[in-house]
Amino acid sequence: MSATATSAIEIVRRLLGDKAGLDPGAMSDNLLRSLVEARLRHHGGDCATWLERLRADRAEQQAVIETALVHETWFFRDVAPFDHLMDLARDRWLRRTAANPVRILSAPCASGEEAWSIAATLVQAGLAPEAISVTAIDLSGVMVKVAQCGVYGARSLRNHHGDLIRPYVEPLPDGGFRIGALLRGCVSFSQVNLLHLPDERGFDAIFCRNALMYMHEAARRKIVGRLKTALAPEAPLFVGHAEAAMLMSHGLYPSGPSRAFALRLRPAEKPCRPEAALPPPVIRPPVAIKPALVTPEPGKAPAEIPADLLMRAHKLADSGALEEALVPLRRFLDAVPMSPEGHALAGMILAARGERAEGIRHLRKALYLNPRDEASKVQLQHLLDAPR
């Protein structure tokens, strides 16, 4: 690799960290190299010329960010949060009107399936459409346009829960469908960077799922601080299952069904320790692997890189495919049996699947290997305190 190409990778890594809050340790050189090569193919020309464009052109910076972002979503993804939202709607919000609507934030919203699922859940619970206000934001302008269009194909209905949206859509001749008029007035989409959330308050619930796990610690703390301020009293913050334990050190605690991964602010009478005093939770894939672990024997096929296995396990778990995530995770732990990150992830996945004893075993091993892992401490205590 040329010195210019190496420089481009580091410049892009810094750009994504500064502008989008992405954790540099979660972005491999191979991923960034592919991104740089894609932009070079788009423009033509040499790497040095492209770097000059990148430094001066905000549109090119945004294009790089768009390429790097993960937009994986579908209707009623992980149905448990929507079941819990349904219960909240029926218990608390059925008397709401257009003058005092239920306000929900979906951030980031990607291509919009989550935001429409929220609106459909509230309508199904019995709320009038005019009493529903879903604010959906995303850093990607491309995704916001897709969401505003509201046209989707079969891929957005990739599990049987996707059929829950069918009463609220209009079929199209090509086999796809369009969000119907009943929901369209319930949701507004706009391009907003999570790092620069506007100072809006009083949201009855916030969905911020599977974004914070990709952030570096400073970005995560900033965003969580804004989200906490935006929550109405007793309002839930729905997060991804890999993020729930991570955020308990930010003054949040579990509330509602375990698989909904809903958190609330700690009561005033039980203040959490100052965030600055807590060590950052160790939950990201390791950024360095000893060469001996990845060097194949002569004549044999290259071995899978353990860091890639752990990243794949994180992504599968993030998508809700918990059983599938265990396959690369077990291969990772076979290669790196003393990895606290691997055992912490295994503990959270197994606990989410209802395998309490195995979850506890892995979390205890994670803490044995890294006693300062605050997230695993909180998750383990939650499992030990939960009724059997």
How would you sum up this structure in a few lines?
With 388 residues, the chain is of the alpha/beta class. It has helices at residues 3-20, 29-43, 47-56, 58-68, 79-93, 113-125, 141-149, 181-184, 217-230, 241-247, 306-318, 322-335, 340-352, 356-369, 374-385, and strands at residues 102-106, 132-138, 151-152, 169-171, 177-179, 187-191, 205-207, 237-238, 252-254, 262-265.
What would you note in describing this structure?
With 388 residues, the chain is α/β, with parallel strands linked by helices. It has three domains: 7-68; 79-267, 3-Layer(aba) Sandwich (Rossmann fold), CATH 3.40.50.150; 303-385, Alpha Horseshoe (Serine Threonine Protein Phosphatase 5, Tetratricopeptide repeat), CATH 1.25.40.10. Helix content is 47%, strand content 10%. It contains 15 helices and ten strands. It has helices spanning 3-20, 29-43, 47-56, 58-68, 79-93, 113-125, 141-149, 181-184, 217-230, 241-247, 306-318, 322-335, 340-352, 356-369, 374-385, and strands spanning 102-106, 132-138, 151-152, 169-171, 177-179, 187-191, 205-207, 237-238, 252-254, 262-265. A seven-stranded mixed beta sheet has the order 6-2-1-7-8-10-9, sandwiched between helices. Strands 3-5-4 form a three-stranded antiparallel beta sheet. The longest helix is centred in the first third of the chain and has 18 residues, at 3-20. The model is unreliable at 269-302 (pLDDT under 50).
